[in-house]
User: What shape does this take?
Amino acid sequence: MNPQLVAHDLARAFNGVHAVDGVSFEVAQGETLSIIGPNGAGKTTLFNLLSGLDQPTRGSITLDGQPLAALGADRFAALGVARTFQHGRVFGNLSVLDNVLIGAHARRRLAHIGSTPLAILAELAAGLVRPGFVAAEERAFRAEAESILALFGDRLLPRLHEPAHSLSYANRRRVELARALAARPRVLLLDEPTAGMNLTETAEALAFIQRLQDRRLTILLIEHKLSLVMTLSDRVLVMDDGRVIAAGVPETVRTNPQVIEAYLGHARRTPPEAEDGATRAGPADPFAAWNVPVVNP
Assistant: This one.
């Protein structure tokens, strides 16, 4: 089977320091690839490159054979790459429905006419005059957004017209995921989708991602909760200091001595800074800091 997403020799340097250094991998259609590693390993920087939010210093990205690396984030979205963020990003003053509709923006007919002054003027005129095709498109997108929200049961649909800032933390994360799905992605990038969630919310998120897998959606997942990684992943990519140190099926990766040493080494240092900026206490068991099992020698 031909790979759907291919990253080759991706690198991103900041003032000479490589946050991502020579990362290469392939993902097949319908596969779930998890990317794990200690904080500061380069995982989110890699996602920024794969979603067009940042541009690589070197390397290439292709989606179904089409080069993406030189394109902006809007073109990545239009071509079928959608993502969520490590720190949930919703538009707080917009309704739940409007947040999700933003995800469909790149699919609008007028979104493909370019960004020249004439194209921008044409889009503005269409918004003011609202010709028939624009109104029909909006109705279709609204119906689709409601069907996506319905996938979350009664978590979001009853709050359709409530502002996003009024939602619980978990529901804001669900809105962000719904917005990504409104783009009809071919590849979905999930950056720590259960961060900050309790056990019940995490279990719901796990079940939801499994439903997406049943639909054969290609997923790239960054996650610190190893139980989710082991359950969801077809393959796991382990990063440390910007490089890939191991790759393979979950059971093989979790017992890889190089992976264990990388986590152990990080845990022995000053307690790492958590993703939300809080400092974690260093546990007696260094593996517990990263949810990595102790492997008997």
The mean pLDDT is 86. Strands lie at 3-14, 17-28, 32-36, 58-63, 66-67, 81-83, 187-191, 218-222, 235-240, 243-248.
